[in-house]
Amino acid sequence: MRRRRLTGEVLKVFDEPVWEPLLEVVGDELVDGWMWMFTVELEDGTPLQAYKHRDTRCYLHLDPDGNAYDYSHEPGPGGSYGQSWYTEIPVLYAFAGAMWAWPALSAGADDLERVEERLAELLEQRAAA
């Protein structure tokens, strides 16, 4: 997986959320649990949409093609953020990582079944790729 640095002007806030990448990953039945937060732009101009799960408070960072990214940063002086970057990771891992705590928080049996089904679908897609 490759690392991609952010541009200098990273945070792009728009009036309208971009839901398509999230819908591709989580599906219609689970999208209601997510909030669109912002868009960041990578050095190469690729926009990443940031989505936050309402209960787990975990993020999914997705590009327009549905690829997932993990956010990392180095500490800067005085506790500030230093350099930041996104590393592309498998969508399966990103989704599983964002949802792992949900059973302990507020998920009902139906919700958990939908998450398990979606994880199985993502696993099948990964195996077929």
Task: Based on the model shown, name its key terms.
129 residues; alpha+beta
Structure in words:
- With 129 residues, this protein is of the alpha+beta class.
- Helices cover 31% and strands 36% of the residues.
- It has four helices and six strands, in the order βαβββββααα.
- The protein has helices at residues 20-26, 91-99, 102-105, 109-128, and strands at 3-12, 34-42, 47-53, 59-62, 68-75, 81-89.
- The chain has a six-stranded antiparallel barrel.
- β2 and β3 (47-53) form a beta hairpin.
- α2 (91-99) packs antiparallel against α4.
- It is globular, with a radius of gyration of 15 Å.
Short overview:
This protein has helices spanning 20-26, 91-99, 102-105, 109-128; strands spanning 3-12, 34-42, 47-53, 59-62, 68-75, 81-89. The protein has 129 residues and is α+β, with helices and mostly antiparallel strands.
Query: Total number of β-strand segments?
Result: 6
Mean pLDDT: 84
Q: What's the number of helices? A: 4
Listing every helix as H and every strand as E from the N terminus to the C terminus, the arrangement reads EHEEEEEHHH
Going across the biggest sheet, name each strand in turn: 1-2-3-4-5-6
What summary fits the major beta sheet?
Answer: 6 strands, antiparallel, barrel
Structural class: alpha+beta
Helix content: 25-40%
Give unreliable regions as ranges: none
How large, in whole angstroms, is the Cα Rg? Answer: 15 Å
Query: Given the C-alpha coordinates, what overall shape results?
Result: globular
The fraction of residues in strands falls at: 35-45%
First-to-last CA distance: 15 Å
